[in-house]
Structure formats: C-alpha cells, structure tokens
Amino acid sequence: VQLQASGGGLVQAGGSLRLSCAASEGSLSGYSMGWFRQAPGKQRELVAAISNTGRTTNYANSVKGRFTISRDNAKNTVYLQMNSLEPEDTAVYYCNAKRGVSIWAMTPANFASWGQGTLVTVSS
C-alpha cells in the first residue's frame, strides 16, 4: 500500500494541527496504522497507533491527552489530531501500515520502507 502523509506546517506552541495519511494505492482496511516521528538527531519513535477496526488506540506517553489518532476506512485515510503542541513535538511525522502486528507492539523496526513524511515545526 502506498501512503502519503500531509498536513504539517509551522505552528506556535499551544496550537493545533491535523495530519492526514492517505492511501494512493490499495486499501487500508485490515491494516494496523501507526504515526511515527523523527526529530533532528533522534531515533524515529511511535507516536500513536490504531487497530484495523479503529476500536483500539495506543499512544506514546509524551502525547497522551494531546494527540488523537483516528481512521476513516471508507476514505482510506488515517488522521492525527495534535493539540497543545509543544516545541518538543517538532519533527518529521510519518505514517505506516502493517498487517498482523499488534498496536501495542508496533515499533519502527516493524517496517522495511517509509514514505515521505510531513514536517511539523512548533515555535516557542
């Protein structure tokens, strides 16, 4: 499945952004989905994950209560609503899809390839 992340930009601390991840080829149904981010000089990390049905979600501790992951399988799109953004959230954000992996065990190592991410910059 081919994925395209979008929606990044420059925002002030405390602001909000909504990222989208759309499948340009193939269907996202049946895939667990994850949003990841990589800040300069740091390793890529899982931010949020959602099960193929959308009923179960998992978040990194650093974003709990501020970020919300959701999906619309009819539109073949996954979203990441980011509120109360902090300068520490500055990173390139990526989405990825995987069958057969639990959202509780999802890590960047589960994925062999990555699409282009979208840059989020939070100014203080």
Topology (SSEs and partners):
Blueprint: E1 2-6, E2 9-12, E3 17-25, E4 32-38, E5 45-50, E6 57-59, E7 67-72, E8 77-82, E9 91-98, E10 118-123
Low-pLDDT segments, ≥5 res: none
Compute the separation of the termini in Å: 37 Å
- Tell me the structural class: mainly beta
Rg result: 13 Å
Average pLDDT for all residues: 95
Task: Please give the largest β-sheet.
Answer: 6 strands, mixed
The percentage helix is under 10%
Individual helix count: 0
- By DSSP, the count of extended strands is 10
Q: H/E element string?
A: EEEEEEEEEE
Shape: globular
Strand order of the largest sheet: 2-10-9-4-5-6
Brief summary of the model shown:
The protein is mostly beta strands. Helices cover 0% and strands 48% of the residues.
Describe the structure.
0% of the residues lie in helices and 48% in strands. The protein has a 6-stranded mixed sheet with strand order 2-10-9-4-5-6, with no helix packed on it. The protein has a 4-stranded antiparallel sheet with strand order 1-3-8-7, with no helix packed on it. The chain contains no helices and 10 strands. Strand 7 and strand 8 form a beta hairpin. It has 124 residues and is mainly beta.
